[in-house]
Every structure is written in C-alpha cells, then in structure tokens.
Specification:
By secondary structure, the chain is α/β, with parallel strands linked by helices. It contains nine helices and ten strands.
Length: 244
C-alpha cells in the first residue's frame, strides 16, 4: 500500500499540494482527475521521491528509498527514456537494473503497438514515444505503476484497445494510478476515482458506489467541482456586450 499522510508541497512560496491524505492499496486501478495545475503531476513526483515535500509517504510501511524504489514505476509524457537508444537496448538496460523485468510482457506490448525494436527512440512519433514509455513502466516489475497523461498523441482506437490489454495483463498485486483528462474513456476501466483541486483532495469514490447511486463519473466530477452549466453562455454574453 502507498500511504500519503499530511502531504504538502510549495513552489516559490505558492502551495501546490496541501495536507493531502490518500491510501492506494495493492490491486487497484485508480483514476486521478483534476484541472490543469491541480497538483496531479506534483503528487506523483512526490510519491516517486523526485521532489522534496512536507509530510509522509510510505511504501508498504517504509519510506521510499533506494531499497524499495524498484516497486514504483512511472510513465510520463515528459519521457524518461534515452532518445538515442533503441527499444532493444532499453530492454537490456532494464533487465540489468530491475530483476523482475518481464521480457514476455515487453515482447507482447511491443508487438501490440507494432513498435520497431531496432530504431532509436528519437525517430519515433510522439504517440509511439508515449506508447514505449508506458511499455517500460509496465514491464519493470513494479507493484505500483504511476501514469501521467500516458496516452497523449494516441488515436482513439489505440487507447481503447490498450485499456482492454492492460486489464488483461495486470496481476492482482499491481496497482495503477492514472492521471488523465480522458474521463469518459477511462470510466469503465478504473475502479476508483480521486479528485484533486488546487492541491487538495476533494473527492474519492469507487466506481461501484457511483453505479449503485445511479451516477456516472463525469456527473460526479461536475458535481464535486461545482461546475456551472451556464459558464459558456455567461462568457459569450459578456464578450458580446463588450464588443457592442
């Protein structure tokens, strides 16, 4: 389990996360939702130990350190691979550093995405680079897989097929924390939704509870965010009045 207790993070005096408490048990697929700048990426980077923070983050009862960092993997649209290396070279590199690296999963996902094995990653398209980033995160052998907008640059059919494949390959002890704006697409894929706004957790609900209450994920998010349905019409009216 990942346990986040009273987590706060500031940049140049501006609060990015404030008193965040969150638990991520093994075996869950959790969607992390929020507007741009809400704190999603900052939260993930704190979990990974990439940023200093106030509070406490425990990984299976222990602070994140070199001893247990291999239990975490990260797929980011900022990319964490070496652009001059080929996928095959990355595979060999990761096999040396991650004893649990799954060569079978690597081969299956590379075949699924139809990615070339012997071309340097700098020659890949943006969508292909993001696909490879996800592949490496899934093959590392980590128990907790963090994904930050991993599907950027991918078409609808690739994304839909990938959700199905991911559900089919995940082991019972693997946990996924997925940050994305593709709310409707992932609503049938995740088991739980966590909402963050201005650095604070404002919602945390299981998809089963939503279904039993007759609500959908988009409606829940709009309700929790106090979304104003007249926002667009009010803005257009103000713009029209200004122009006149």
């Amino acid at each position: 389990m990942i346990e986040i207790k009273n987590l706060s993070k500031s940049y140049l005096g501006k609060r990015a996360l404030e008193n965040v408490d969150l638990r991520l048990p093994r075996g869950e697929i959790v969607g992390l939702f929020g507007e741009n700048g809400a704190g999603k990426t900052t939260l993930m980077k704190c979990i990974l130990g990439l940023l200093p923070f106030d509070g406490e983050i425990l990984l299976d009862g222990s602070p994140v350190s070199r001893r247990n960092i291999a239990s975490l993997s990260f797929a980011t649209s900022e990319h964490s691979f070496f652009p001059n290396l080929t996928p095959l070279a990355h595979k060999e590199f990761c096999k040396e550093h991650f004893p649990k690296f799954s060569e079978k999963r690597f081969k299956g996902l590379m075949d699924f995405f139809e990615l070339p094995l012997k071309k340097p990653l700098r020659s890949f398209s943006t969508g292909q680079k993001n696909q490879f980033e996800v592949i490496m995160a899934l093959c590392q052998g980590a128990d907790y897989i963090l994904m930050d907008e991993p599907f950027a640059g991918n078409d609808l059919f690739n994304r839909e097929d990938f959700y199905k494949v991911l559900l089919g390959i995940l082991e019972p002890n693997e946990t996924v924390l997925l940050s994305t704006h593709l709310i409707e697409e992932v609503s049938g894929f995740i088991g739980r939704a966590v909402l963050i706004r201005k650095g604070k957790i404002i919602g945390d609900v299981s998809m089963m509870d939503l279904e039993e209450s007759g609500r959908d994920l988009v409606g829940y998010i709009k309700e929790t965010y106090h979304y104003r349905a007249d926002r667009v019409s009010r803005a257009l009216n103000e713009l029209t009045d200004t122009e006149e």
